[in-house]
Prior knowledge:
about 25% strand, alpha/beta, Jelly Rolls
Amino acid sequence: xxxxxxxxxxxxxxxxxxxxxxxxxxxxxxxxxxxxxxxxxxxxxxxxxxxxxxxxxxxxxxxxxxxxxxxxxxxxxxxxxxxxxxxxxxxxxxxxxxxxxxxxxxxxxxxxxxxxxxxxxxxxxxxxxxxxxxxxxxxxxxxxxxxxxxxxxxxxxxxxxxxxxxxxxxxxxxxxxxxxxxxxxxxxxxxxxxxxxxxxxxxxxxxxxxxxxxxxxxxxxxxxxxxxxxxxxxxxxxxxxxxxxxxxxxxxxxxxxxxxxxxxxxxxxxxxxxxxxxxxxxxxxxxxxxxxxxxxxxxxxxxxxxxxxxxxxxxxxxxxxxxxxxxxxxxxxxxxxxxxxxxxxxxxxxxxxxxxxxxxxxxxxxxxxxxxxxxxxxxxxxxxxxxxxxxxxxxxxxxxxxxxxxxxxxxxxxxxxxxxxxxxxxxxxxxxxxxxxxxxxxxxxxxxxxxxxxxxxxxxxxxxxxxxxxxxxxxxxxxxxxxxxxxxxxxxxxxxxxxxx
Length: 501
């Protein structure tokens, strides 16, 4: 009888252990993710993707994803979906320790991830619109790290088809130096439960190329560099309701000339350099043109960028699926076919032929040629000199904003509807940022065109193209250099030309 009792007790114990094992997964260990592919392989698998915008990140009108959208996205030839998520909302996450994310919201995001994976899409989930963190990064850092600890743990059992993106477009007080530290700390938190999951590393100063020279890339073989691209901004965001001063840009076209393409290639030189030097794959996490732009220009811009990204080995995610930039119209249940085809099926075309007419060419042989240097804040200090036919700006104290130090030449005539090319040579003693713009030379300082560049110690040519949305006989030509520390700037061979189609 005792033997039977012992055998029955042992059997019940084994049954209990077996049931427990099935319902409570073991913690993730290194070996559990040992089969995860390298970041370079994951990036190839990502290929062409799209953002599910105005959904989980839209605090102004939050909603859940429609599972049918993932079917539509997969059927249209996209290989991945980026799902922006705003975790920082009172109804979603606590603002006091231990900063608990609401289980119902985690479940809602999980449903979207599961629906995407069911349709054989790779998925990127991120942290989007963490506005409190941008304003008070030191105070909210514990919340930021606690949120990533929870997200990483919650999704740790998922395959390598799920990727994490730590933070969308860091900016404001969360500057480049802080961002390097914040990303490293968040990555360390993620690696505790997801040792080999691919993680996307974004860039400070709104996620574009301007702050690449300040980015510190951790030693981790499961990272992808992600870049956002919306240049020319006066084209992609013309008439955007949330962008102050964007109405004068209405009517701006993108003509796909060799000079339009040249400006794109120039913008990405720093990305290509880092891709090669750091051997890190590149993902273009956002690019798109708002629906106030004419469809023909949107098609040309989207087609060239998507094919050029692919030629350079970048994966990409168009912004976005079914809202203001979207390829799909939920009201009609139909795709905007021309835009969809430009992204997914059409081949690279030849550039539009043009003629160039010279309107201004700098001459620094004996004088500044009408250019003046301005220190627009008490924190900024700089001086200008002419050396060997070049303008040299020496910076002794950088500003807090890019416009705090500006080199300006007024009197540049622009005419509404005409397209112009700006080009110049520039260099520094190291890597630093420089912005070039055309703007109204008095209040309210309307910007007609704006582009960011990353200078190096190598003397190089830079350019951008824009279509004027207003007529101004005395626009100001402006170089802004308040960012970039005390590294000097040398500029010459400045040209302003009209492009005639």
